[in-house]
Each structure stands twice: as structure tokens, then as C-alpha cells.
Amino acid sequence: MAITIHIYYTGINENARKFAEEMMEKGVVEKICAERGNLGYEYFFPMKDRETVLLIDSWKDQQSLDAHHASPMMAQIAALREKYNLHMKVERYILDEAGIPAGDQAFIRE
Predict the structure, then answer these.
(1) Burial of 77 (0-12, 13-18, 19+ CB in 10 A)
(2) Would you list the domain boundaries of the chain?
(3) Residue 47 and residue 33: Cα distance in Å, rounded?
(4) Is 41 exposed, middle or buried (0-12, 13-18, 19+ CB in 10 A)?
(5) What is the pLDDT of residues 65-99, one digit of tens each?
(6) What are the percentages of helix, strand and coil residues in the chain, rounded to 5?
(7) Mapping DSSP to helix (H, G, I), strand (E, B) and coil, where does residue 73 land?
(8) Gap between the Cα atoms of 94 and 86, Å rounded
(9) In this predicted model, what pLDDT tens digit does every residue of 37-66 receive, in sequence order?
(10) Are 93 and 6 in contact (CB under 8 A)?
(11) What is the model's pLDDT at position 47?
(12) Around 108, how many Cα atoms within 13 Å sit in the side-chain half-sphere?
């Protein structure tokens, strides 16, 4: 049961982007991607909102996500969130094991 988390980080003065850049530069993202059960960890930048960054964070299962939350990296992440005074909106998605319905397949170009 794969889990995907969308975290919208919002700040001022482009602090959300600075946060994402520092996460990359310090190697935190690379370490997270190397954790057992991580399926993806990537930042996206909304075109209409320079003050928000979207993190798409995917895990194999709840146990992998729990292990990540218990890791020492969470203290680093929390410190950087505090440094940049970021606010968060979180959405959680569970993979539909049935896959994409046949009716939706017609709209997908591979």
C-alpha cells in the first residue's frame, strides 16, 4: 500500500524555495531518497505562487514512513522549517491498487 504525501510549504520572500534549495545542498534529500521504503522525494514550484513549494513524498508503506519520521533527519528538517518560518498544508494519498480505470486510459498519452 504505497503512500504519497503532498506538503505545501509556504513562506515569504521566497523562503520556501530557499528551504528546498538548502535541503538539496545539505544532502538531506539524497539521504531521504536512500532510506528503505522511499519511492520518491521531489520538490515542485507552482508557476503562479512564488511563495509556495510542493513536496511530493512517496513511501512503500506506513512502516517505512514511520521509520522516516523517527529518523534523525526529521530534526534537521524541522530546524530548516523553523529557520525559514514555513507553514505547511498536508495532503495524504493511498495508491489505488486497482490502477487507472479503463475509461481514464483514453486520456493518457504514453
Answers:
(1) middle
(2) 3-96
(3) 25
(4) buried
(5) 999 999 999 999 999 999 999 999 999 999 988 88
(6) 35, 30, 35
(7) helix
(8) 26
(9) 999 999 999 999 999 999 999 999 999 999
(10) yes
(11) 94
(12) 7
- CA-based nearest residue to 63, from 37, 87, 44: 37
Nearest to 35 by CA among 11, 5, 66, 10: 66
How confident is residue 21, by pLDDT bands cut at 50, 70 and 90? very high
Which residues on adjacent β-strands are paired with residue 29?
none
Fold of 3-96: Alpha-Beta Plaits (3.30.70)
Torsions phi, psi for 91 (to 5 deg): -125, 140
Q: List the grid coordinates of 25.
A: 545542498
- Please say whether the beta carbons of 53 and 20 come within 8 A: yes
The pTM (predicted TM-score) of the whole model is 0.91
Q: List the strands of the sheet with 52-59, edge to edge.
A: 38-44, 52-59, 3-10, 87-94
